[in-house]
Write a sequence for this structure.
């Protein structure tokens, strides 16, 4: 194999590959060409258009945020210290007042700046005006997965349900973002009727789209769904045919043993959002039980209005800590936690053959941490450093699809000052619209 001239080389790195064997390469080199990883291993001779000396820092796969509402960065801190019902009571009027394709673009740009600077390269987004978010993500070089959202009321985008179906039909055949699949995103089993859910299932079958939906987030939701549909959200999703390897449910906080077994048996992925679940006092998801049952688990931040940031590192650590308190310190060890934030997310999104690990042939979504970070010194086990000590402040370089999008901590694809100023402008609109 010749590495005569490659686009990018990263040298002097400790590579945590997250491959099937959890291989770690001390003092390694990664080569990138045409957006793909062409070499991972011990130092070799090469010629590269650009070389990044990692200075002994850790290289890892880009993190995956597998449940979020990106443009809700606009409402960060608008409703704190209340439960989900209190939160929605304040949020929904704000959304109705200011949401448009333009403001969604503003909120999404801010979110992508936050995600990229923190080492997250892929997100599964669910929000209104996804076309606007998609445009922003393409410009930012971010791997965004998203699609049309379904609610039974008209929504802040003022679209009755039948129009949403027609809209989704038109959108679904188009890939949505860099290497993205098509997604249909019904909000939840409490904001849609059974007939509507069945219609979305038929549309997913017709178009081959993947499905993302909230399920079993709060006790109130379970009561609502029992009242409306006479069963649990997961049972209902099974009955309408919406569980399966192409479906990702967000939260899965209140699951009984039968729900866990159903999710595992159908190959449904669950995105665990511990920061949102704990801040809203929704509960603690049975993550250890899901993993034990064989279900695929990914990590998400939820929207920045509920959580209140988009920090996947924090989600990773919180996921580990809460399960350890429940089941003992050996539960979800470091390697398992790092896997949730990388390969778990990639598998949930159906792109584990493309990203989620540092392996030859995969797309080059890479994060390089600061080799002289005090909180990452000394390192006895780089996987432990990632799970229990690393954070967004340690991220120095980020590569998505072979493109350097964070260069020595500076965003190369987003004008951060413009993004911040625009978001402050929307804050003024929000304050004018709601008391
Ligand atoms: Zn959510």
């Amino acid at each position: 194999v010749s590495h005569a001239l490659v686009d990018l080389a990263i040298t002097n790195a400790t590579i945590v590959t997250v491959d099937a064997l959890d291989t770690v390469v001390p003092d390694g080199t990664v080569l990138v060409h045409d957006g793909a990883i062409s070499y991972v291993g011990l130092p070799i001779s090469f010629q590269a258009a650009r070389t990044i000396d990692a200075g002994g820092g850790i290289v890892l796969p880009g993190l995956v945020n597998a449940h979020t509402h990106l443009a809700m960065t606009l409402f960060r801190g608008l409703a704190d210290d209340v439960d989900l019902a209190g939160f929605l009571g304040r949020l929904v009027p704000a959304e109705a007042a200011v949401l448009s394709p333009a403001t969604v673009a503003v909120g999404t740009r801010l979110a992508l700046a936050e995600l990229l600077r923190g080492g997250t390269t892929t997100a599964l987004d669910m929000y209104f005006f996804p076309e606007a978010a998609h445009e922003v993500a393409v410009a930012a070089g971010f791997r965004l997965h998203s699609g049309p959202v379904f609610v039974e009321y008209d929504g802040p985008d003022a679209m009755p349900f039948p129009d949403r179906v027609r809209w989704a039909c038109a959108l679904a055949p188009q890939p949505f973002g860099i290497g993205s699949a098509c997604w249909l995103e019904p909000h939840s089993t409490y904001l849609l009727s059974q007939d509507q859910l069945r219609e979305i299932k038929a549309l997913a079958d017709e178009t081959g789209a993947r499905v993302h939906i909230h399920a079993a987030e709060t006790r109130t939701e379970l009561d609502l769904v029992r009242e409306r549909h006479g069963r649990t959200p997961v049972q209902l999703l099974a009955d309408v045919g919406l569980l399966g390897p192409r479906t990702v449910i967000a939260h899965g906080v209140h699951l009984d043993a039968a729900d866990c077994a159903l999710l595992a048996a159908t190959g449904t992925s669950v995105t665990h959002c511990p920061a949102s679940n704990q801040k809203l006092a929704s509960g603690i998801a049975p993550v250890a039980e899901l993993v034990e049952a064989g279900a695929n688990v990914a990590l998400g931040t939820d929207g920045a209005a509920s959580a209140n940031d988009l920090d996947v590192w924090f989600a990773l650590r919180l996921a580990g800590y809460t399960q350890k308190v429940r089941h003992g310190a050996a539960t979800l060890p470091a390697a398992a936690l790092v896997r949730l934030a990388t390969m778990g997310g990639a598998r949930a999104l159906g792109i584990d053959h493309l990203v989620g690990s540092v392996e030859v042939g995969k797309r080059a979504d890479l994060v390089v941490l600061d080799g002289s970070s005090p909180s990452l010194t000394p390192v006895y086990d780089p996987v432990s450093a990632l799970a229990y000590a690393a954070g967004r402040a340690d991220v120095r370089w980020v590569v998505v699809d072979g493109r350097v999008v964070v260069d020595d901590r500076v965003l190369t694809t987003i004008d951060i000052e413009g993004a911040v100023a625009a978001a402050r402008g929307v804050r003024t609109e929000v304050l004018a619209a709601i008391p």
Q: What stands out?
A: The pocket of zinc ion is lined by residues 67, 69, 214, 250, 302-303 (CB under 6 Å).
